[in-house]
Every structure is written in C-alpha cells, then in structure tokens.
C-alpha cells in the first residue's frame, strides 16, 4: 500500500532531529579528538561495553586511583562528580554509590558549618582543615581536608578536595602523648617505678631510682642494680618472685656501704600475653622512715608498758596501804560508835543523875530556906526576948559584958541569913515585905489574901510592885524562885 506524503510539520521535526544527532556526533568526535573522552560505551550483542581510550593523562588517572589519599571532585552544591577508590574506602561506601551523592552525608551536623566555610574559601584559594568522616556511625575517621578551585571551563564553581586519613597519625600522636604522660608520671612519682623486659633487664626507671642508686640503671638487670634482701637475709630474685606470682607487696631491704639499711615495700606484676611474659612492672615504696618510726613506736610502747607496770605496782601498793588504812579507820569508827554508845548511855545516866541532883538541890534549897527561917524565928522568939530580959534585970557589969558578947556572937551567927533579905527588903513597904515573905514560903495569891485579909487584886498589885522594885518584871523567872535565891 503506498505511503501518504509527509506533512510539512513532520518533515520539519525530522530535519531538527537529524540536525541534533549530527551535532551530537560532531561533539563526540571533537571530544574524542581533543582527548576529553576517556572511554566509549558501545552496544554489542553481549550488551553495552566500555572501551577505554588511552591518552597523555592516563598516568595521572592511574596515579589518582592508586594514591593513598582520597580524591574528590565536587560541584557547587556539594555533589560528588568524581572520587577515587580510596575515598570510597575512607567513607566505607561502595564507589558506585558515592559518585553522585552529596559530600555532606558523610559528615556529622556539627562539622557542616565548618565544611561549608571550607568550600567557600576553596572557590578562591587552597585551604585545609581537620575534620572527621562518619556521620551517624560509631567509627569516626579523623581526616585532613585540602580544598582548591577546579579551573574547568565547562564546570564553573567546582572544587577539588583531597582527603587524608589521619587515623594512623592520631594513633601515633596519642601513643606519643601517652608516652610523654607515662614519662612525666614516672619522673614525678614519689615511689620508684621500674619497667623490665622478660629477662629482668631494666628498660625504663623513674627518676626516684637515681636518688636511691645515684644513677639511672638502664639496661642493668634488676637484681644487680638493687641487690635487695628479704628480711631473713636471703637475696631477692625478681624472676623467681614473678614465678611465685608476686602481686602482693613484700618487704625487702637494701644494704648501704656504711652498713645501714633502707627498707622498702616491693610489688611486681608481669605483662603477659599468649606468647608469655612481655615485661615486668616493679613498684618500690620506701618505708625506711615508717619502719624506723614503727621501731621507735615499739620502743616507746615498751617504755610506756614498763612505766605502766611500775605505776601499777605503785598503785597496788598504795591500794594495799589504803585498804589497810580504811580497815583501821573502819575499826576506829566501830570503836568510836561503841564509845559513842557508851557515852550516850553515860550521858543518859548523867542526865538522870543531874535531874535527880537538881531535885535534891531544889529540895535542899527549900530545906535551907526553911531552916534559916526556923533559925531566925527561933532566935527571935526563943533567945532574943530572954537576952533582953537578962540585960534589963542584970546589974552585974561582968555578967552584962558576957550577955553583950553572947548577943554579938549570936548576931554574927545569924547575920548571913538576914543580910541579903535586909538589903533587898529595905526597898519594899511593910505590906510588900509581908507579901514577899508569904510568896517566898510558897503561898498562893488566894491564901495570902486570906492571911492578910486583903482582896486578891490588891495582892496581885503588891506582887507586881515587888517585881518592879526588884528588877524582875517582864523576865522569865518566878518571883518565889528569885526571892528564895536571895537567902
């Protein structure tokens, strides 16, 4: 069947398509001739195949692929246009997945601002920073990023970045820092630290060993350098001690040339792996002052014990003496209590005797007063009247003289009885004297009023006057007692 003629529009579309294909072919040919194409993709019966074109830049390409640093070509937005296998290894992603991805996916959010500044500087000039690859991963790789502008006409704003893995360098720096730290610790430690190899040869020692030995004993055997002794005098052997698992500290001694000793606590630990002992770490602590202080403390303790024993003996002796004294005092107190009981009994007896004596004295006083009154009464009644009659009836002068002598002697005999009464009674009236005599005889107010034929109130009035004139008013003494004392 004959085909219908094509329209003008269809012919125009075919012409444009043929023109575009011709231009594409010419551009490919130009790129091949100028060396811009590294390889061609050709469709074959087995499928598409890549044919590589060798050129002057082939050695450079091989160098980039085999270099130990990662090489990356980046677009302005951070898209990876090209990278070598080393960069893919550093980020731990397949190469085909890395090309075309964003460079920012391999950095954590903390590093993105710094990375963007690096790209901004890299568009103008070369720049370097240290960073870390591995966003969201447990393993982070320290890297050095070197960025420089990529001057390609067809790719404006692109940059070239070289990524250097700093893992080994950081590990070496950490080891060096750790080595310096260990050296500082060994140098500043007050205790002595010695590191030996598996044969017991010293490969490192702290500076404190120099103060002890006067030298740094590097490459000497430990036993030769220190020559330690056990407390029983046997030599200390490091390898033998390690064989005995010397993990706890043991006491050793070092003998000085002047026959004095220094004492130490030593502990040794072996560094062991599957092949055996790698090395030996020895720590030595000087306990000389502590040991001497302990010995001095023991001596002081012994001296204190001796003084305590002496003091205890003295105290025991004093306690025995005190106990004996207490016993004597208790015996004396017992005797004193017995004596006090006897004295109490005697006091009771004396009190009773005193009371009886007072009764007797009172009775004797009353008898004396009664006797005096009777004597006075009898003398006045029985003797004095007759003496007056003899004087009146006697004419003989010699007999009158005898009578006067007799009267004088009689007055002398009775004068002590009446002297006090006369001196006192001279201040009283006749009625008061009569009342006083009756009171002295123990008569009551009622009885006296009956004898003198006066009212009881009058007798009380005279009794009050008598107390006033005798000076015993408002005093705690009976009127009869006072009047009786005057005799």
- Which stretches are poorly predicted, pLDDT < 50 over at least 5 residues? none
Main sheet characteristics = 5 strands, antiparallel
Tally of DSSP helical segments: 15
Distance between the termini: 205 Å
N to C succession of SSEs: HEEHEEHHHEEEHEEHHHEEEHHHHHH
**How many whole angstroms does the radius of gyration measure?**
74 Å
Helix/strand/pairing class, anyone? alpha+beta
Helix content class? 55-70%
β-strand amount: 15-25%
Q: How many DSSP E strands?
A: 12
Mean pLDDT: 78
| Overall geometric form | elongated
- Spatial order of the strands forming the largest sheet: 4-3-7-6-5
Describe this structure as you would to a colleague.
Helix 12 packs across helix 15 and helix 13 crosses helix 14. The model has no long low-confidence stretch (mean pLDDT 78). The protein contains 15 helices and twelve strands. The strands form three sheets. A five-stranded antiparallel sheet has the order 4-3-7-6-5. The N and C termini lie far apart (205 Å). The longest helix is centred in the C-terminal third of the chain and has 106 residues. The chain is elongated, with a radius of gyration of 74 Å. 56% of the residues lie in helices and 17% in strands. By secondary structure, it is of the alpha+beta class.
